[in-house]
Amino acid sequence: MASNKSFIIAFLLALTFSSMSMSLAARHLMQTTAPTLPTLPPLPSIPALPQGNVPPLPIIPSIPTTLPPLPTNIPNIPTIPQLNVPPLPSIPTFTIPTTMPSIPFLSPPPSTSTP
Q: Over the chain, what HEC string results?
């Protein structure tokens, strides 16, 4: 277990020293003067695109505003025969007791051995 801890400590120590040297190098680069940038050549001009001929939009047909006439000769609907429904059966009535019946006292069975 000690070797594992010492490996982690050595790794963190190496990481610390490597980051210190990198931060010093970054500071050194920030203190240098910026180099002169070369001038870029001008961009070429973009030629104009030719205009194409677009066909005309299709014409939407007009919807008729008047409704067609309703039919005048309506067929006769046959009459529905009347159904005779039998009467509903009556539900039997029960008398509801108003008092609670008593619970009978149960005596223990007689023992076969004497004490």
A: CHHHHHHHHHHHHHHHHHHHHHHHHHHHHHHCCCCCCCCCCCCCCCCCCCCCCCCCCCCCCCCCCCCCCCCCCCCCCCCCCCCCCCCCCCCCCCCCCCCCCCCCCCCCCCCCCCC
Nearest-angstrom CA–CA distance, 9 and 18: 14
Query: pLDDT tens for residues 13-25?
Result: 888 877 777 777 7
Tokens of 97: 């007791």
* Tens-place pLDDT, residues 27-80: 888 887 888 888 999 999 999 988 888 889 999 989 888 988 888 888 888 888
Q: Which domain holds residue 23?
A: 1-32
Distance CA 61, CA 55 (A): 18
Task: Domain count for the chain, please give it.
Answer: 1
